[in-house]
Records
---
Amino acid sequence: LKMSWFWFHLPLHLLMVACLCHSIKAPTSSFQQSFKTDLFNFYHSLILADGKETTVHLLKDIPKRYYFVLEEGRALAPFTITVTPCDVPIEWSILVHKASAICFLPAGDHDTQEVSKSQKAPSMVSTIFNYKGNSVETYVGMSSHSALYMLEFLSTERDTHITVYLTTDTTSGHLYPELPMDPRIDVIGIGHTTVTLTWKHSPSVLQHTENIQYCLLVNEKHNYKSLCAAETAIRSSGMKLPPTLALSLSPYLLEPQQVMILSNSELSIINKVSSGEVRQICMGIKNTYTVPNLSPSTQYYFDVFVVNLLTNASAAYTGTFARTLEEPEPKVTELKDGKVIQVVLDGKKQKSYSLQYQARHKKIQFTFQLCRGQVRVHITKNGRTVAAENLSGLRYFSLKGKLLDTYLVQLRSTEESDSSVKVQVSSHFHKPLFPLLPESLKIKSFSKLRTCNSVTIAWLGTQEESKYCVYKKRIEEDQVWMELRDADRCSGPESRHKSEKVLCKYFYDVNLQRAVTTETIKGLDAGTLYLFDVYLFGPSGIPVRYHSKVVKTRKKC
């Protein structure tokens, strides 16, 4: 009775397994025990779902098996299996169990009945396909309902995961987007910071425009054979990657190491990883794209994936690589002893500017006055670095060497806006180009001394008698940031309108503690913003501009 209940509750495909696994004359107790053992093992193996992508996790050196059988009435039906390794190369095989059509089944309380009158050999197992590697591989075959199929997967390098897709329905379209007959990516243009790519359209794009898009992956390490492998590599670098399609739909899963850029209907995600940047760019259905903002003289790897937005499945084009052009050697300008030059730097192109000087004395001094923006200076002597820092205000570098030493000065902007700096090299320390500077170039205003038509400001002086000129400019609230950002700290009063001049005065104090002066500027309008500047003139006549100060007069007094 127990055996009858046991058989009655078996699914059809498990009954088939019973037939495939046994070919005997009559059920015996030993047969029952053997069959129960086989059935137990089968229950604890994994049945591969039809028409669904399955993620399989593999432990190193431990094989994993999946089975599938066709439903009744599906004899000689085609089927496809697609396996996508998401990391290291794997080994996988397809085995088929074929058996004779003899099987004994219990018939309730009756004696066993012979299903087939002719008894043949036991079931046979044969391997019909095997593969080793990390490429996406698809097997297409014809299945019979009298056969049981087994897929066996093995990773010998490390723990990993793969995706497996089985389908026996060839009439309802493809889970994976289709690749063109020629799936190569062509490089049609290379610049110093750009590479232009093109590829042939996927047939899926032409059929389902609204559900398909192209995504490009750019990195400096190697090509990836699947989007799954690329995502695994980025995760292994220590960060969380958004789901494949989230990168084209939403930034809600971005991590701190990721930067998202959305412009002209293109979305880019830049992942900051230990091996450099990994960029993901989704550009809709355009099949030509120019990758911007690359580094000169650098090899990049490019992979294009066609992605199904509905199923999240993707197919990879054959990746390519290209090396950007070398940055042309910067033009070197000769510096002359005592002469001042002003250098303007292009922040967007990040180009450096080179100056060269051959020493005529053992001791020399470089002077840099930052005029606008942010500038980094790098000085070498006979090829060896002697100074490197970001400039601020006025900076002196006093260096010692030998006669005819060659100094190379390289300047570059560290921000996107243009920057400029004045440079001088001199061996005459006793003839300074710039005036002696106070401890601080800040202008202070006194809030309690503000009135409706006057403000009081103060600034530090030096022990050397110098000339100071004060200028004022009326500005609006929305002009403050622009005025302070774009101020040219190297420009003198000659750039100002005559009506902006307030006064000029001389002063100094041997005691630096008392080298402070104040000035009350009158004749101002109530409730109005003013920009105040102070210029310091030294013996050479070259001015140094204090940091601008914005003060607002009182509305009511």
---
Amino acid sequence: MFGLEKPAGQREPGRSGGLPKMASVGDFNVLSSSIPATKVELSVSCRNLLDRDTFSKSDPICVLYTQAIGNKEWREFGRTEVIDNTLNPDFVRKFIMDYFFEERENLRFDFYDVDSKSPNLSKHDFLGQMFCTLGEIVGSQGSRLEKPIVGIPGKKCGTVIVTAEELGCCRDSVLMQFCANKLDKKDFFGKSDPFLVFHRSNEDGSFTICHKTEVIKNTLNPVWQAFKISVRALCNGDYDRTIKVEVYDWDRDGSHDFIGEFTTSYRELSRGQSQFNVYEVINPKKKGKKKKYVNSGTVTLLSFLIETEVSFLDYIKGGTQINFTVAIDFTASNGNPSQPTSLHYMNPYQLNAYGMALRAVGEIIQDYDSDKMFPALGFGARLPPDGRVSHEFALNGNPQNPYCHGIDGVMEAYYRSLKSVQLYGPTNFAPVINHVARYAASVKDGSQYFVLLIITDGVISDMAQTKESIVNASKLPMSIIIVGVGPAEFDAMEELDGDVVRISSRGRFAERDIVQFVPFRDYIDRSGNHVLSMARLAKDVLAEIPEQFLSYMRVRGIKPSPAPPPYTPPIHVLQTQI
């Protein structure tokens, strides 16, 4: 099953004993206390590693580190097994990690040639390392990332191939229906009012409730409605784990009477309707008291259907690209960029609020865009040479090709624009929304999805036109993130974020909720740690994107494209050394 084996505790360096086993649970992360969207399994292979042994080939091991968000400290996550005498290892032991689209998970893979049984890595020869993010692996074609190993100056250290596979049982659901016969009568005047309560067992032997059926009134032979439950909720993905089902008679005052119970497992239930899935309901107290006690009725499984939910990662693996566009507010209310009080102030020592919001969101999204070319737009400024006001201008000065290379390219174009344009007004959003919508309207086959990030300091001037643009865009493969910077009141923005009331324009409602608004001030870390502020902002604004993405695909009936065929490493003939 997935990562249910108890992770071996990491031994402190220097303690005797073999190399520690892989840990499949990272240190608890303050930002990740929500249930992970999914789990992915990472497989590692290397080609042409350095040969550090004189008389034979290296004996490689891979050690994975993750990076804490606040202090940037690297922590060991786990180790693969050691493979003897090869420069082209395909490690068997996998790394199982929680995956969140909205978080940047920095990874470091270190490789060593193991020379002894010591768990202390400094006792072994370093073969090089590779840095990447989990998003980079997942966002690569077929979720397969190939990168050179670096770290030893002047030497070619070979390449590493990391493949991510979403664990299947994370997203299987089952549709089940049960009925019961001849249950014990518990009510004085009528028959019982039965319902079922399902519990999954935990590793320590305790039970956690995971489902309650509805109550069927006044019958000893109830047929409950079919219900859907995820396999994770039912048994945590462990098919042989005990599932306990209790049968109760409902009472209005909440003191429900216990009729009896039975146990089963996912594996047994998966046999479907058969003689194996008719269960005797046993009341242990009655059984102990009455010699002739047989049971308190039976419960029968009527149907069992497995449904696999398609996930965000299925589309990414099938090649769907996420296109990221930035639009920046150049209105005069931001203040003169040469003054430290301005929201656009170019401080040589730290990013301004616009730069922080742009980096926080952009650095995560760029992993899902293969060409890393991002259109960057501005609005609300007077442009040289004639001073005309524009609400949709290219930050790089090239309206035919507004693309910038990577987030660094966007930042560069932003700083250049600040020096050449004049901040003006008003604050109109509709032109930049319509700009991205034109592109989104041309690719509705699920191969591309568009995310527009608008960073603004305030009050919107074209509310009616913006609402109209959003309602139109809600039919397209796009999402809009609005980050409000500075001290202004952002009440109107909350109206655009359709979480409470779905946005409408001239009697037409948005087909889906595609806008997420956040004020940046809510994320500023009081201790002045900008890295933490940016991680918190990204987590909140990006968390809704996978669901918005899936809602578009579901409404349009678009299925993920098949992933490219899995990579099979070339077979190397081992030559015997003479």
---
Amino acid sequence: QTKTGIALLYDEVSENAYDIRLKLTKEVLTIQKQDVVCVSGSDHSANHRTVTLRRQPVGGLGLSIKGGAEHKVPVVISKIFKDQAAEQTGMLFIGDAIIQVNGINVESATHEEVVHLLRNAGDEVTITVQYLREAPSFLKLPLGSPGPSSDHSSGTSSPLFDSGLHLNGNSTNTAPSSPSSPIANEPKYEKRWLDTLSVPLSMARISRYKTGTDKLRSNAFEVLALDGVSTGILQFYTAQESADWLRAMSTNISDLTLQNMKMANKCCSPSDQVIHMGWVNERLEGADSSQLYKFKFLALKGSSFYIFSTPPVSTLDWVRAEKIYNLCEVLFKIHKLWLADDCWLQANLYLGIHQDFDLEDQRPYCFSVMVGHGKSHYFNVELGSELAVWEKSFQRAIFLEVQRTGSKTYMCSWQGDTLCFTIDFALGFTCFDSKTKNVLWRFKFSQLKGSSDDGKTRVKLLFQNLDTKQIETKELEFQDLTAVLHCIHSFIAAKVASVDPVFIDSQCIARKYMYSN
């Protein structure tokens, strides 16, 4: 998507926000700030401009000012009136900070001091100005060309007094003075939007939260490039604008990620393809039990689920993952959805969404990945559409891996005997002696009627004998029981999906409820 619009850049240190323009293309987000540039004439710097104004009998200096040292901002030109002295110079612009008046420095002057100086400066007033590129938004300066009719600010009034200097000051000359006008050889200036920062969107990430907290920024978010360069906090006037920009940027980032996946898959065998990858936030439990989140990059590739601190950009990067898990031995669970009516939809309502965590945090769109030895990773994404994609991708990746693998065998024991337990996509469950290889029992997936475990190492599997219709209990002990139970779940789900194509869609909780609402 391509998109252009006005936003604010919020400075968390000064707590001020500045007007900016955003330009979104398929691959780059560009931040622009307004500045005054020299477009013709002598090659003078546009940083400081010295202009002589001739006070007119009607209209005075033809400008208004705002700000002052008492507000911790310079005095700036807030209005320029059409066909009056200030406009006729062609060298003054709304947003210009007044540096000097008739040689007197006013950078630290109050509003009233500058007003007094300008009103009593005589018929000719020489001012030195510099365009204030980061004018705080509370000044409510119009954006665009001079004149009250071009006010593109938010429309609310500024808390600062707007002093009009379009009336006569203390003039000693009652005769009409010649109007201020640009001299032929003088440089000409224009106010333009200039690029100040370009953020590549390939492998970029977005955050709506204050760093390391669960505090959601109001109508604002931050975009961070792969190399760590940040846009800063982008703030929008309405929730709708913020949502529109968030979706547009997320769409472009996702499209670029898809391109990167296709490039990576050209170098990979058919059995080792990337199914999905992208940024998430992982919740970490601190020593003081405070909840912290860190960016992680997840990937589903071939037989494995990868967790990275930074994205893999080359073939060799795949071996430096923080964690790698076999896809057959993980279990994906949705924990939170946020519906259109802004209510929480959590576990145990009617969707079968699992809740095994203490979910006191305020982040929506959460899921966990259960791994071996009873451990879990808890993640959050920014959009409901991202949650739906991860859910579908995990299902697809796991089902593909089950079909590729065909079977998994685990060492186990019971009553002192060392046994092997095999889960086979075609045959079901088989238990045999590890030494003699003699088969002790075999059941189809459809014969498994229930199970229970002690949460540690021991499990009871309840099978129905096809001949007697009686339930037979088989007890086994595994070193990593969680991995085995996840594997059983993966194989059974893949088996059902292979005979019922609708099964996958029926299991997509996030997609079903995010889109229907």
